[in-house]
Fold:
Amino acid sequence: MKIENLKIYLLFILFFSIAIGVQGQKKHERIEKGFFPFSVWYSGGKARAPMLSEITADSEKEWRADLQQIKDLGFNTVRTWVEWATCEPEPGKYNFDNLHLLMRIANETGLKVFIQIYVDSAPDWVAQNYPYALFEAQSGDKIYPQSAPGACTDNKAVEDAVLNFYSETAKVATAYPNFFGWDLWSEPHIINWASINYIPNVQFCFCSGTRARFREWLKNKYHTLDNLNSAWHRNFQDWEQVDPPRFSTILSYTDFIDWKTFIYEKLVHDMQARYNAIRRVDPTHLITAHAVGASLFQSPHLGTGATDDFLMSRALDYYGVSIYPKHNHPQSAWSVTTFRTVMDFTRSANRENGGWYVGELQAGLGTVALQVSDPVTSDDHRIWMWSAIAKGAKGINIYAYYPMSSGYEAGGYGLINLDGTLTERAMNAGRIANVVNRNQQLFLSATPATAEIGIVYNPLTQMVGGMQRLDFPAALSQSLIGYFQTFANHNIPVDFIHREHLENQDFSQYKLIIIPYPIMFTREAASGLRAFVENGGYVLAEARMGWNDDRGYASEIIPGLGMHDIFGVRENEIKMRESIEFTITDENHPALQGLEKGSKLMGSLYVESLSMLDNNKDVRILATTEEGQPAIVSTSYGKGESMLVGTYMGMANFQEFNSNNDKFFINLLNWANIKRPFTTSLDGRTSDQVEVRLQDTKDGYLVFIINHSVRSEEIDINLNLSSDGVYTLRDVINETQKKVKCSNNTLNISARIDCKGVHVIEVTQNN
Structure:
């Protein structure tokens, strides 16, 4: 099988390139994006996903009653699942009886159907026929299937069987007029839902197929074995000797970076292959998938692996996310900041797609074994659903209709009770679905207000140090969120952007780019950053900018990769400290206005002192270390300006709110000449606040007012408009309206909003 695998994957990169190349062709004009699916997970009966119910003489009656109840509540779609293990009991022999029955009854009931395909649970014959394709852990242990994982698709025979199953499912689904679209992959991590306590930090997969595929990826990157040996500091005599790294060495960690980069790219390729398998049969229906959570919170060091949402979204029409704010334990509940970050990160990753989906939204009480979450309430659903729509979601799926009937999630995650009786949250969710149904085109066509601030997401930074678990795995997420939450608390539009946007110089809409925790960078990104500042952009970067390149090699001068001239300084000294304070020395700088000379800014992890390049007179020292050394500086470069912060202020702000840091971050808008689309009387509160989101519509604007707090609030919103006159404010939820006059290009919206309340206001100008 080694020879066979090598033959199969010898052209892997060619196939990969073709797959990526067709991405520009995949967004067919005919793809159905003119419908907002508001759905619940249901697949006939009470079997838990992805299991399927056995069809009995009573099935049609029972399923019809369930589907009618779903329809009557207000939902327009059901999301069902099709499981490979059940539907292909023998090779090439398919049983889609469940799908046929559900599709027919749903059509007669007036519900569209969204199909989730599960191939993680492989049929028993797969492991029996292809034992070499069993998943193999980092330790070399083979993982025998019980459910997921089934078998590794890096082996050609398994991949063919999987893709054939996708195509066969598509033949069935597209025969029904109520079929709407696809979810190809639920939470595409390599291990998926296996919990293996006898193998520490399980990392998949190291089977012969994956190893062969990795070698072909390396051949495409390095071309010759000599080049690979040089990069890895090894002495391979044959490509067959090359193996993925299983531990760290003192020599280099380029092998680790290559291995994890391969995993990122492999997942994109695999997603594209599934997309193409559907498209061969179905050229028009929407195709999505969804992540377990924003990749910002994932680390390549974890056994479950990590995806890159920005890369994954390119292989799909929409890429979604699972949202479980209360999860399965009171201590695992998300903060408001985490909740907003997950959605805004997913929105940002789908920038080119024009929207995103909530692949799974927690329906009810979370359970895992003996753990239970706090109860999920109607108030929770109101906040969660409208927050997603406010951030540009174009579809919501609630997981699930019935609670899980078996397994370690038994009794959890249900919108209704297991005996079929309704809950208050089910009826409330249905009422929200009805509002969305009445305003389909409004929500589908609305787009979030354009952001002029981009916060750079660079997953490379989590690879510094190789497999040494001294990489501060939360540093990246905390650093980015520390900036994001400040802008979010002040209701300022902001995007996450990928490092590749810098590499491709795709940043024309942004005036300010922030690069938190920038310890690993690429030459291409450095070149893009230089072009951005030269052409009038403003950039703020944090300590140790470009410390390592994308091979894991240290820079001779920091900022590295030639970026020191952009900032006008170089690193003088670096120290680690528990507590870090910088002293403000230039209160007249636009970023420090309103802050007194001598007051403190808080940092985290590193204190980086800086020295001027050749006594550069253009550098302004904004703050100093305790020893009086320059620690925050700004300088002009080309038509733009740069700022270097010799610590991690974002991380510090995440760990503990600091009013001076908050003021400094907001002042960056003055520095970069950014005008806000609106302001509110409650700007600057903590994350438990009244959140305001603005969307552009065909005829005006949508204003979302979402009260995350546990108290009623009064708020004034000043919306900056291009023209005066009389405007109509329509309450989309309650179907009421009033007229308001705009003067001096400012429209005032005043509202009193109950605790956990939501207002959605459509703003249109009268003729």
User: Anything to note?
Assistant: The first helix runs from residue 2 to 9. The mean pLDDT is 92. The CA atoms of residues 325 and 687 lie 15 Å apart.
